[in-house]
User: What shape does this take?
Amino acid sequence: MKYVKDNIIKTIDQVRQELPNISMREGADLTEFGFQTLIETPMPIRDGYHYIEGVTGVTQTWTEVQNEVVIPQSLTPRQIRKVLTDSGMRQAVEDMVKNSTDFDLKDWWEYSLDYERTHPKLIEAAYTLGLTDAQIDTMFIMGASL
Assistant: This one.
């Protein structure tokens, strides 16, 4: 089951993150917090869009909402290296790490079991290479699909 708030579709886990102090179960009524429940319908739906049912009195209305793009929070070593190779940035990263005097950076790049989107070393390296937050997000989205 999914929920909608401000025309953004969210999973129960995303709602729990947004409302950490509220105990809820799948299928809970969250209207008091501004959420509507997503209704899966058999009617044709454009790619990337769903419909939610809003009830006012006895009148039912349908509202079109777009899927939220979820930025993955981490990538595996294979995923991050593959997306860097595919984007043409792999050699620049490898050179930056090789030429760095920061042993924490070298160890992080060489031995991490996953690469977190918000890790300070990742952000520092990305900014050093001139990447924007939007570019980093795009790389994580692409990497997660590999």
Remarks:
- The first helix runs from residue 12 to 18.
- Residues 40-66 have pLDDT under 50 and may be disordered.
- The radius of gyration is 20 Å.
